[in-house]
Amino acid sequence: MRVFLTGASGWIGSAVVPELVEAGHDVTGLARSDRAAAALTAAGVRVLPGSLDDLDTLRTVAGAVDGVIHLAFKHDIAFSGDFEGAAQSDRRAVEALGEVLAGSDRPLVIASGTLGLAPGRVATEQDGHDPDPAVGPGGAGPSAPCPRRRGTSGEAGPPTTECRGTPARA
Domain 2-111 belongs to what topology? Predict the structure, then answer.
């Protein structure tokens, strides 16, 4: 299987890549730095230089593979005060990938944070789907709602849920 990963050299990606390579998959990883490219090459991964902002590149590679695993997130800008910008970049990347995969049987797997979940209880697949912004994801407090949807255009495309919790506002 030909698999494309964003965030392939990151925290989750560095655990997923060896599993895919050992299973015999043909893996391509997005690398936004020379350091990331070197790590991916050493792991036996084909390197695609770029970033989440390269939407045309994301669309092109998603159209040429059997599945996509989206693990990247712009933590650097998120933790420097622009969480909203990081989340919007992530949303655009997911939408670009989903546009290409819409109507196909090729999967789009997305890893997302659990920042907005209420502590002290078990999280479920239903968390983050409350349309009431006063409740927010997981009942943790006010936040943007996290829509459950299929693909990026109505009912077509791979099933996706996009939710990146934001800190609760007082």
Answer: Rossmann fold (3.40.50)
